[in-house]
Amino acid sequence: MASHWEDFYATHLPPPDFEDNRSILKEFCERHKKIGQRIVLITSGGTTVPLEHNTVRFVDNFSAGTRGAASAEYFLEHGYTVIFMHRLKSLEPFTRHFNGQKLMDMLELDERGPNTSITVKPDSVDVLAPVLARYKHAQECGRILYINFTTISDYFWLLRAACECLATFESSALLYLAAAVSDFYVPSNEMPTHKIQSGSGVPNIQLQLVPKLLAPLVSLWVPQAFVVSFKLETDEHILIPKARSALNNYKHKLVIGNILQTRSSRVVFVTPDNNYEVVLTREQQLNGMEIEDGIVSNVIISHTEFMKNSKY
Ligand code: 9Z3
């Protein structure tokens, strides 16, 4: 049985920097509320499930945070204010383009003469400049807030705090829940304090079901917002039925389904009325296009329609 979401909060302490993050979220939302822009909360990346309080080991998942980080850039382009709530060390908007050694390979170092200089290689300027321009613009307008989490418990606390701040935006708020949140965890009161010892034999670790936060989120925390959840599967046959059952259970407006191996080229939108696919062809991929461009454009069309209907 999944524990109830309220029990989870009652038995798991907030992360140490929680109050700071809550104030930052509140201040950011109040400032943007005055400007009257649309706002999106994007969750991105995986969550860890610690096996010990003094955590040496944890259960993790595959998510790199590409979906969330890329989508954040497209939402900014469409004029949305963005709260980017992501797993620490997962991909972030803008810097994701220069991950690993890419940035180093774009630079030239000159140590001759009295002053050391670093320049961008001529053939890299066209690659770096547009991303840098978009990054600077977003920073100068203060239109993106970065908040990070690591564990499932951090995620729970921050998601609820963000929702409390977003509720006042009513239908202008969009929740885009792309993080790969663990379905299983070890409750705090069942976790050993110290590192599990191999000398004690094979560990018997009992995982419990994580309560589904979509239920209180949709019905209690942000009842007027446009909520988009993602559904990940590895078996094509169950993707649409599972996505539709999530929509029926939680009564939000849109579930975006994807299959692990094809997630960067195909997704299916499951709405109360129909299903439709957003696909990126091989040719489009080779031309540097990203599926998040199409996903975000379609989500915004639905959000706009939702806002119009909410006025009456
Ligand atoms: C997704 O399905 C995302 O699209 C991915 C993106 C995590 C697949 P990457 O970060 O991958 O770009 O590498 N997110 C939601 C996955 C999820 O756990 N959904 C829950 C479920 O399927 C419901 S909220 O049960």
TrEMBL record:
GO BP terms, alphabetized: coenzyme A biosynthetic process
Residue stretches making up the DNA/pantothenate metabolism flavoprotein C-terminal domain: 38-90, 165-285
Pfam families xref list: DFP
Highest taxon above the source species: Eukaryota
GO molecular function, one term: catalytic activity
SUPFAM superfamilies the UniProt entry points to: CoaB-like
Sequence similarity: Belongs to the PPC synthetase family.
Protein name: DNA/pantothenate metabolism flavoprotein C-terminal domain-containing protein
Organism: Brassicogethes aeneus (Rape pollen beetle)
